[in-house]
Amino acid sequence: MPAPDIHLLSVGTALPGPPVDNATLVRRLKVPAVWEQWIDTFIGTHNRHFAVDLETGAVHTTLTDLGVSASTRALAAAGLDSGDIDFIVLGTASPEMLMPTTVNMIADRLGIDNVPTYQLQSGCTGAIQALDVAQAMLTAGPARTALVIGADSCAKHIDLSLNFESMQPSEQVNGVLFGDGAGAAVLSTRPARNSAVIRQVYLRLVGMNREPGQSIEWYGRADRNSDRPAVSEDYKAIEESVPKMAVEVLHEVLDHLDWDESDVDYLLPPQLSGRMTARIRDALELPRAQEVSCVAETGNTGNALPFLQLERALPRMSAGDRALAIAIESSKWIKAGIALEKV
Amino acid sequence: MPAPDIHLLSVGTALPGPPVDNATLVRRLKVPAVWEQWIDTFIGTHNRHFAVDLETGAVHTTLTDLGVSASTRALAAAGLDSGDIDFIVLGTASPEMLMPTTVNMIADRLGIDNVPTYQLQSGCTGAIQALDVAQAMLTAGPARTALVIGADSCAKHIDLSLNFESMQPSEQVNGVLFGDGAGAAVLSTRPARNSAVIRQVYLRLVGMNREPGQSIEWYGRADRNSDRPAVSEDYKAIEESVPKMAVEVLHEVLDHLDWDESDVDYLLPPQLSGRMTARIRDALELPRAQEVSCVAETGNTGNALPFLQLERALPRMSAGDRALAIAIESSKWIKAGIALEKV
Question: pTM of the entire structure?
C-alpha cells in the first residue's frame, strides 16, 4: 500500500489585542522619537500584537488562550470537532510553564482527551517541525487526523521597567522585532474540498561549528538573579546567513520534487522582519510567484508565522497551484521548507 | 510493502558526579537529621546524582554534557558513528536555554549535522514520547536510523540558599525526589545482533478536567521576581492516581498486542520514587515478570529514566523475551508504555 497523501484541510490563527504601531511602541519603550523612523526604515515592521497590556504590564491573553482560539478556528474551518482529532503537536519557543506543557492545557480547553500530544521546543522553523512530526505520524498510521499548532508570546520577556536606550543593540533589536500570536492547522489522510496536499517537508539542522545567531534564556529559582541577557541576537550574522540559507532550501525542495522555479505559484518567505523578508524574496528570484507575507503587520510571531501566511495563501490557490513556504531558524541555524499543492 | 520493524539497537546513559546519599542530602539541605530516615522509609530513594556541586552550587555537568555522554555510549554500543544518524529526538523538562535548543547543542558536539532534529518539552513520559516520534519517522521513511535522547537536570531549580524546613510539603518533596541524568538509544529499521523490536508505543493524555499533579515554572526577564513557587507537587493525587493509571497501561498494551500477563518477562515500572515504584509493581500483579528498576539509586531522573531501565534490561533478555516499560506523567496526566521483544 503506498503512503497516503497528507492533506492540509484548514488553518486558523489568533492575534492578541489591538495592533501596536511603531509610534506607540517607541513611546512606551521611552526611546527617542527618531526610533519610529528607524524601525520603519531598517526593520520594516509597522505593527505587532502583544499578549501584554503595554500600559499596565498585565498579561491579557495567555499562550493557551491564543492556541485555543487558533485551534477552534482551524477545527471550524475543517468542519471537524474535538472528537475527530487523533493527536496534537504544538511548536513554541515560549511555553507558559515547563510543566504541564501548554499543548496539554490547550487540549483540556478544547475538550480533546485520550490521545497522544507532543510539544516541540522550537523557534522560527517550529511550525514546519510540528507539521513534519504530524506528517510522519499520519503516514505511519493508524492516526488519521492531526491538530498542529504554533504559538509564541513574549509576555515573560517584556520588562517595561528596563531602559531600552542603554541596552546593547543585540538586546534592543528584540524590542521591535517580535509580536505574539498563534496559528493552527488540521491535517488528515482524508481529502476535503479545498484542501492542499503536502508534497514535501524539508528540515535540516546546519549549525555545526557555528555560533548561535539568537539566544533566549529562561531563569530558574536558583539562577534568576543572573546577569545573563534574556534575549540576544547577532543581527549581522542573521542578515548575512538567512538569505543564503533560504536560497538553499528553495533549490533543495525544487530538486527533490522535480519542480522548477516557474512551478512555484505562491512563495511564503521567512518573516524575520519586513525588510529582511523583502531582501530574501529578492534573493530567491522567483519572479512569477506571488509573495504571501504578514510580518509588516504582525511582527515576527515565531512558531505562528507560517500558519499566518498559509491562512492568507490557501483561499487564493486554485486546483493545481503550488506553494512553497520557507523558514529559517537562526538560533542554531536550521533550514526548513514545506511544499503544498492544491488538488 | 508492510511497515518495517523498528529495532532498538543499543542504549547508553550518563549520571553526573558521585552518588549523593540521604545523609549527605539532609546535611546539605540543613534539615533535621530525622529526615534521613523519613526519606529512606517514605520515599525509598537512597542515592541520586546532581549536575551541581552541592558545596559550591556550581554546575559541573551541563544537560548538553549529559546528553553527549549518553549518546556517545549508545552510538558506540551500536557500532555506529555520527554520520549514520538520520535524525535526533530529545525529550527534556529542563532545557538549558529556550533557544538554541539543547538537542542542537548536543548534535554540534557529536558532529551530527544536516539532519532534522526535534526537542520535546516533556516530563516523566518524555522518553516514550521521544521514542514514539522516532518510531513514526522511521516507519514513514526515508530515515532509517535515529538517535533518541532523554535528559534532565535540576540545576536551575536547586537553590541551596533556601530554607527547606520552612517550605510547604508540596515544595519540600522536590528536594528529595529528583536526580540528574541522561539516556540515549539508537533505533533503526535494520536489525542488529542483540537488538529488540519495538512492538508498541502507547501514549495517551488523560488530563481533561483534572488539576495538574505537578507544576514546574520558568521565569523570564519580566517575571523573575514573582512569588510563584518554582516546583510543586500534589503528592497525594500522584500516590492515588499513578498506580491505577499504570494498571490501565498494562491492560491496554496487552490487549492491543494480544499478550497475556504471563508473556511479560521483564517489567520496567514507573520510577517516581523507590516506595511508589514498589506500590505500582504490586498493583500490576505480574508475578512472573522480573522487575527492572533504578530509582532507589538514581532518584527520579525524568526523561532519562526509561533509558536507565532499558540499559539494565536489554543484556538480560534472551531471544523471545518480552519487556514492558510503563511511565506516567503527573503534571497533566499522561499514560505511556513501550513493549519490546528480543528477536
Answer: 0.97
